[in-house]
Amino acid sequence: AQSVTQPDIHITVSEGASLELRCNYSYGATPYLFWYVQSPGQGLQLLLKYFSGDTLVQGIKGFEAEFKRSQSSFNLRKPSVHWSDAAEYFCAVGARGFGNEKLTFGTGTRLTIIP
Amino acid sequence: EADIYQTPRYLVIGTGKKITLECSQTMGHDKMYWYQQDPGMELHLIHYSYGVNSTEKGDLSSESTVSRIRTEHFPLTLESARPSHTSQYLCASRDPLAGSNTGELFFGEGSRLTVL
User: Fold this and answer.
1) Residue A89: which of A36, A49, A33, A50 has the closest Cα?
2) Please, is B13 exposed, middle or buried when counting C-beta atoms within 10 Å of its C-beta (0-12, 13-18, 19+)?
């Protein structure tokens, strides 16, 4: 069974600073990987996803993530955060193969932006 | 913008009441899901459906039930609510990609249930 660890429960960064949110996964093969963002009172919105190919994936809102197989990581990055990026961020892993419906989510990282 | 809607957004009810959380999507997606979300915890899959007349239980044992009579509608019901059911419930549907399970999940805004 797959699992996801987001080591940082809460991160605070200054507006304009760079950001990296950590995600480590456990899965026996190459997984499908996702980052979702959840603003207060809202559902989850997909930021980006990795299925195969280029290990550096670009997403919406200026986010990117890099799949590192050797480290079992899929860290999310943004070069310069904006106040509107304050939200909860969830990393998720999905198993390959038809019928594998389970998308396993991490516990989330809450991002606070200070002026 | 995803077209998946949940009602009610917020619900406070007393113990023992029957409640139904509604979820509708207008994207024609066959696969739909219910997740339970508690603060500081991962999202837990409690129910999913492959299509009309299909319902399956997820990882987390839940006393709720679901039905899928129409493609666009996937309601969740609690016959007798208890305080332990207090949580946020998120509905999602999956964008299909050539029959695989790799498609993106679209989420509704959630239904926050409080049982007193």
Assistant:
1) A36
2) middle
Respond yes or no on whether the N-terminal peptide bond of residue A79 is cis (omega within 30° of 0). Answer: no
Q: Tell which residue, A89, A60, A44, A6, has the closest CA to residue B94.
A: A44
A46 interaction partners in chain B (CB closer than 8 Å): 104-106
Cα–Cα dist B72/B106, whole Å: 13
Q: What is the pLDDT of residues A47-82, one digit of tens each?
A: 999 988 889 999 999 999 999 999 999 999 999 999
Positive or negative: CA dihedral A66, A68, A74, A76: negative
A46 touches chain B (CB under 8 A): yes
Contact B107 A104 (CB under 8 A): no
Q: Which two tokens stand for residue A91?
A: 């990393």
